[in-house]
Specification:
Helix content of chain B: under 10%
Radius of gyration of chain B: 14 Å
Distance between the termini of chain A: 37 Å
Strand content of chain B: over 45%
Largest interface: A-B, 29 and 25 residues
Structural class of chain A: mainly beta
Number of helices of chain B: 0
Number of strands of chain B: 11
Oligomer: heterodimer
Distance between the termini of chain B: 41 Å
Radius of gyration of chain A: 14 Å
Strand content of chain A: over 45%
Number of helices of chain A: 0
Shape of chain A: globular
Order of helices and strands of chain A: EEEEEEEEEEE
Largest sheet of chain A: 7 strands, mixed
Structural class of chain B: mainly beta
Chain lengths: ~120, ~110
């Protein structure tokens, strides 16, 4: 069973360009979470999605950032008009509902975004 | 919202010794506490977790304890090996639609020969 897949692994964008990050969850997982990790820091929650629905976007900046998880295909995190402060590692995690309603989250390898 | 504090930030132990990492959380409604290991350039790897209806859980050389009253939980690694060297993160969450993980700031564990 393949793990969570993310691509690209590394992405370089100039200021003002768009960054599009993709995440394919583990087989059978219908819950996707996106987290951001700045250098030497912990992971910060951004958004939680289920198929075709945004469940919690409380950690997502109000402007320039958007996320989707369509019925078919990977989840996409889109950052428009990138700025240098967007440089970070972006991790996707997937989960399936457990018997006690708790979701074990399994992480992908991340996309390292560098804005020049 | 939830706040998770983690100590120490760095920890150096000799091979074969034990390592303990401690976390505290603020939200009394949190009921799920996973621990992740992150190696350089990789994504976090779930190594053990504990739910609020359990006080202790063990998996080979790794154990986690939870004190709900004090809002403390800890990771214990026994008989450390060089391959245990990594950054370890604790996290806390509720279940259901509020299941986002709130992470601690991480502990860099160095196991020396």
């Amino acid at each position: 069973n393949a793990g969570v897949m993310q691509n690209p692994r590394h992405l370089v964008r100039r200021r003002g360009q768009e960054a599009r990050l993709r995440c394919s969850p583990m087989k059978g997982h219908s819950h996707v979470y996106w987290y951001r990790q700045l250098p030497e820091e912990g992971l910060k929650f951004m958004v939680y999605l289920q198929k075709e629905n945004i469940i919690d976007e409380s950690g997502m900046p109000k402007e320039r950032f958007s996320a989707e998880f369509p019925k078919e295909g990977p989840s996409i995190l889109r950052i428009q008009q990138v700025v240098r402060g967007d440089s970070a590692a972006y991790f996707c995690a997937s989960a399936v509902a457990g018997g006690l309603g708790t979701y074990e989250q399994y992480f992908g390898p991340g996309t390292r975004l560098t804005v020049t | 919202g939830e706040n998770v504090e983690q100590h120490p930030s760095t920890l150096s132990v000799q091979e074969g010794d034990s390592a303990v990492i401690k976390c505290t959380y603020s939200d009394s409604a949190s009921n799920y506490f996973p621990w992740y290991k992150q190696e350089l350039g990789k994504g976090p790897q779930l190594i053990i977790d504990i739910r609020s209806n359990v006080g202790e859980k063990k998996d080979q050389r790794i154990a986690v304890t939870l004190n709900k009253t004090a809002k403390h939980f800890s990771l214990h690694i026994t008989e450390t090996q060089p391959e245990d060297s990594a950054v370890y993160f604790c996290a806390a969450s509720r279940t259901g639609t509020a299941s986002k993980l709130t992470f601690g700031t991480g502990t860099r564990l160095q196991v020396t020969l």
